[in-house]
Design a protein that fits this description.
The chain is of the alpha/beta class. The chain has a single domain, classed as Metalloproteases ("zincins"), catalytic domain (Collagenase (Catalytic Domain), 3-Layer(aba) Sandwich). A 5-stranded mixed sheet has the order 1-2-5-3-4, sandwiched between helices. The longest helix is centred in the last third of the chain and has 21 residues. It is globular. The two termini are about 20 Å apart.
């Protein structure tokens, strides 16, 4: 699996080496062996531009995922109708092709709101984005609940193995 991390924000220093280790561990747990994934850590102005341009939503958001496996450039934040269980993939060697944009400024704001760390929020957004690339949807209450459960489970696994404060 090819993983490229671009830190295009200046609000917080990010340990890209540790982030890549976390991504690799998550992908291994998800049995994703091949493909390419780009992780972009961005500030508020860039995520607003992406949100408005590609999703036609006004304002800031925390994470946007683009799934390049089917149609180039399609934002997958709200695009999937079938909600899979992780591990439902039929192909013998599952692949992932996509790009995730994570707003570090929003992670800081949400960490204050929820009493967590900004590092934990970054990893939560990472998990959320990867789940979107796997076909999870959060556009209605039932799907959102199912996705949130999987997101929390994966985040809990990661926090048992990595010290997120070092991110």
């Amino acid at each position: 699996m090819d993983i490229v991390i671009a830190n295009r924000q200046r609000t917080r220093k990010i340990n890209r080496r540790l982030l890549k280790q976390i991504i690799r561990a998550l992908l291994e747990k998800l049995k994703l062996e091949t493909g390419e994934i780009g992780i972009n850590l961005v500030g508020t102005p860039e995520i607003i531009r992406l949100n408005e341009t590609f999703l036609r939503h006004a304002g800031v958001t925390d994470v946007i995922a683009f799934d390049y496996s089917d149609s180039v450039g399609q934002a997958s934040r709200l695009s999937h109708s079938k909600i899979p269980q992780v591990g439902d993939r039929q192909d013998a060697c599952p692949t992932l092709h996509g790009e995730i944009f994570i707003c570090v400024d929003e992670a800081i704001r949400q960490a204050r709101r929820f009493g967590t760390s900004w590092q934990s929020e970054i990893v939560r957004y990472l998990v959320h984005g990867i789940l979107h690339l796997l076909g999870f949807d959060d556009s209605d209450a039932v799907a959102r609940c199912r996705m949130k459960r999987e997101e929390n489970r994966r985040l809990h696994e990661i926090t048992r193995h990595f010290s997120l404060s070092k991110l």
